[in-house]
C-alpha cells in the first residue's frame, strides 16, 4: 500500500573533498613529525622540539582549512 512505484533519490552523502591547502598542511605535518623523530633519535633535542612546534602549527592549519571548507558548504567553492 505504501509503495508508489517511484524510486526515492537520496542526496549525495559522500564527504566533501579535502581542500588542497589542507592536504599540503597535512603533508607538512607528517614530514615534520618524521623529522622530529629522526632528530630525537640522533640526539638533537633542540631541533626535535622545533620540528614538533612546526608539526603543531601545520596540524592547526589543516583543521582550519578543513573546517572552513565544511562551513562554506558544497555549493560555495572555497578559494585556495
Structure description:
The chain is mainly α. Helices cover 62% and strands 0% of the residues. It is built from 2 helices and no strands. The chain is elongated. The mean pLDDT is 85.
Calculate Rg over CA atoms. 21 Å
Beta-strand portion reads under 5%
Q: What letter string, H or E per element, gives the SSE order?
A: HH
Distance between the amino and carboxyl termini: 51 Å
State the helicity in percent bands: 55-70%
- Pairing-aware structural class of the strands and helices? mainly alpha
Low-confidence stretches: none
Summarize the structure.
This protein has 80 residues and is mainly alpha-helical. It is 62% helix and 0% strand. It has 2 helices and no strands.
Summary keywords:
mainly alpha; 0% strand; 80 residues
SSE order and pairing:
Blueprint (H helix, E strand, L loop, with lengths): L19 H22 L3 H28 L8
Helix pairs in contact: 1-2
Amino acid at each position: 500500500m505504501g509503495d508508489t512505484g517511484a524510486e526515492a533519490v537520496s542526496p549525495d552523502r559522500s564527504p566533501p573533498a579535502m581542500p588542497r591547502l589542507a592536504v599540503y598542511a597535512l603533508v607538512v605535518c607528517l614530514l615534520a613529525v618524521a623529522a622530529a623523530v629522526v632528530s630525537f633519535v640522533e640526539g638533537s633535542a633542540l631541533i626535535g622540539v622545533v620540528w614538533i612546534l612546526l608539526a603543531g602549527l601545520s596540524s592547526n592549519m589543516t583543521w582550519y582549512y578543513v573546517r572552513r571548507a565544511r562551513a562554506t558548504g558544497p555549493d560555495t567553492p572555497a578559494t585556495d
